[in-house]
Q: What sequence folds into this?
């Protein structure tokens, strides 16, 4: 009889899920307790993990216990622990417990909010949680928010929207083979993140369309040079289209003068995109609000809760004052996705049709910590960075190489009492970094600031305390001593 | 004393995480047991969820219990349940239990595999798991795999790579203001997914660059028309650049003749991208392999394990025979990301710098079910769809509107014994769908095939059994009866 067909093989049973789920909870809780017992930087060589795994998928099913055993045995030694309190490289991030639990629920529910009706809850919670975040960082309600996966994708949408606004009929006609479209220009500083480069390339503008304005001694874009570049480019027949101002650049966390850049963009009809991927949350702090002066006049702004708002990877928050332009660029509804409800559909706000239920973790994190709790935590990280900056400044053999407006300290060893070439200093500091990172306790990174090799210590994990920052400083000093012998 | 600074406020404690983690495991297990007790299609109206939530973030911290209560009370009624066995709309997907557990671990570890050294395990497991998948679907080892979030992004990379291969110095010079670059052309069928449209727009080619080749009576691209279009376009001064062949189109799961299209692409030097986002896993079945004949000659292919390979959203698998071109288009390493290890860095293979640890769930799922278990499950879904197709064919008041090569059945009611206009049939079938979807038991969707309003029933969730498909068929017949009175 129809309907009585053999039940097909299904999923793990709920009881089996219970058993393994509770095991995984215990595993994660122990990992939270023991994170410092793992080396922060993985100690494997390229190929080690790959060689330890079979070259082919198993033909028959394996037990979840066996899989977890291999996970512990083979994969765990290959982790660089972004959750370690000694992780002070790149930007230090946190998968906070409420965020991890929210992500767990999101995975199980598997909501896909392409259309309102395919997940009213995910669609509207995104609006609500992004509204909360918008108010907390002081943006006016003329900004509409949408969640993407990464700042690379948020920025890509900003560039696409700027192109849509600047080039007549670009959605339909594109850029190639048109006598009426000149070469385009996007402006950023020499400190701007590489995602701008990739976005400009992908949008078909060509890398040469990105003109990098020199930064000043504190690594801030120089507005006078931006203005001069625009004038020069217009005279040469280019079409200036957009500018990117950064609040908290990746190398040094420098802050571009957003208000001055906003003035220029308004006068020249350029799209202004503000990249606050890292430092955005500090707009919640009255004492940091001045860094964001002028951001309310931006056309778009990106900040990443997965950087410094305790959110497990990935969640990038994109705010746009002209979201209609984003929709104009991308909205496109095939027959099979037409719905009668007239609701706002998230698929219209971008390239990706499918959308994981990311708003759940943002909402749970903001509630669990509360606005006050978020501000307290940001302030604690900034204070830890100021402590380290003070120790660097007070030490005769070290020098700070950039201001420390947020939670990243840029400096180098420069032992007193002799003359150094830049090459010698670069080599010395690279060796210091290598020694510190070999400790397994602390992981720091490097950059080059206006040609100067620079050590970066980034604070931002919820487990990082004064003890860890002090230990980092001890290890750095010890490494200098060892290198000086 | 330095280092004894006040410990800053941190995360939820491990013990608190234990308590809430175990609660969430129990919640998810009950949800797995009880999914059918929820209406599959949410019964809220636009704005209901938003209005039930505060307009501002709380100033002070709230308990996780209170947050979970609100989640249950406010958000759960706003879910359309993609995990419900009666979810037969769009493509039916599964967040399998091993995949959910893997995602939970991935969230907690918060690995970010931009560089090899920032997660050797995530970097190399991606290589291993994608190698397994590549072999399972029968692609040669000349294809390199990389994981993105969605097929929209995979396809975007295919288009960007095709542009890189076709347009001299496009990375540097872009498309605008160049006398040496004519208008470009990308070819697909009139059944191709909207992600191609969005990718072509974003890449700056313009929507008009996408030429849609008419499909035949079985919704397959007609190679002779593709060839003629290319000839015509070359004569008119266009530069043909790429073609997209689909195996399992979204509307009807039709299969383009990949081998014939591959012949044309080879002869005309076009990049061939195969969109197998939905049907890709069936390449593991010998009885389906013929649908993929010629795919080994594609330049790139996308399939989405988050569609029909039991993987929680999101995970899209991109295979490319010319990944060097993708790298040539996007590889770009700022000073702060330079590393001495010489390893392959995933950040070089695309636009997104940040990468969630997605390979973990793919690896765990392939091991937990095993290749044989995956094939059994795919076959079960295909069999269920064939059953329904048979019932439709045998019923005098229904007609099938497309072949059923995989697990989606396209059909409509067309009651015998009277003459219908197309408009009347569209209206009748829309009312049938609305009645079925109001049941809360089953959720189906619609499309338009060559102008004909069509009902779509998509099978693909691991919990869907013959009982659910039979119930869908009963509800559809009942709806027709109700509408016929």
A:
């Amino acid at each position: 009889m129809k309907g009585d067909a053999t039940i097909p093989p299904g999923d793990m049973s709920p009881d089996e899920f219970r058993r393994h789920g509770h095991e995984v909870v215990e595993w994660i809780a122990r990992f939270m307790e023991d994170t410092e017992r793992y080396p922060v930087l993985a100690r494997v060589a390229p190929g080690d993990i790959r060689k330890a795994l079979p070259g082919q998928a198993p033909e028959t099913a394996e037990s979840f216990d066996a899989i977890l055993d291999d996970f512990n045995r083979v994969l765990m030694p290959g982790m660089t622990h972004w959750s370690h309190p000694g992780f002070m490289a790149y930007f230090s991030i946190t998968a906070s417990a409420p965020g991890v639990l929210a992500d767990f629920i999101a995975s199980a529910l598997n909501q896909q909010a392409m259309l309102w009706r395919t997940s009213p809850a995910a669609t509207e919670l995104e609006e609500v949680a992004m509204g909360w975040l918008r108010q907390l960082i002081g943006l006016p309600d003329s900004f509409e928010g949408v969640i993407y996966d990464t700042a690379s994708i948020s920025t890509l949408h900003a560039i696409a929207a700027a192109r849509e606004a600047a080039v007549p009929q670009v959605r339909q006609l594109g850029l190639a083979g048109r006598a009426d479209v000149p070469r385009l220009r996007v402006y950023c500083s020499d400190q701007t993140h590489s995602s701008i480069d990739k976005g400009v390339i992908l949008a078909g503008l060509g890398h040469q369309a990105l003109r990098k304005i020199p930064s000043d001694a504190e690594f801030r874009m120089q507005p006078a040079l931006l203005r001069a570049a625009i004038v020069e480019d217009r005279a040469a027949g280019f079409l200036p289209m957009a500018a990117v101002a950064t609040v908290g650049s990746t190398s040094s966390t420098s802050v571009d003068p957003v208000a001055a850049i906003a003035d220029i963009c308004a006068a020249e009809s350029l799209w202004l995109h503000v990249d606050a991927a890292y430092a955005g949350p500090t707009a919640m702090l009255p004492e940091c609000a001045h860094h964001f002066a002028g951001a309310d006049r931006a056309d778009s702004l990106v900040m990443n809760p997965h950087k410094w708002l305790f959110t497990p990877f990935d969640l990038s928050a994109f705010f746009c004052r002209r979201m209609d332009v984003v929709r104009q660029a991308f909205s496109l509804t095939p027959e099979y996705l037409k719905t009668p409800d007239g609701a706002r559909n998230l698929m219209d706000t971008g390239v990706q049709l499918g959308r994981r239920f990311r708003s759940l973790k943002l909402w749970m994190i903001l509630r669990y910590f509360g606005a006050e709790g978020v501000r307290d935590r940001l302030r604690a990280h900034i204070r830890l960075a100021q402590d380290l900056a003070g120790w660097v400044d007070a030490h005769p053999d070290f020098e700070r190489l950039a201001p420390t407006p947020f939670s990243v300290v840029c400096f180098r060893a420069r032992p007193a009492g002799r003359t150094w070439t830049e090459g010698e200093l670069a080599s010395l500091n690279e060796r210091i970094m290598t020694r510190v990172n070999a400790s397994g306790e602390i992981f720091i990174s490097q950059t080059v600031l206006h040609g100067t090799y620079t050590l970066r210590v980034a604070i931002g994990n919820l487990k990082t305390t004064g003890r860890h920052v002090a230990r980092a400083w001890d290890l750095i000093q010890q490494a200098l001593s060892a290198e000086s012998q």
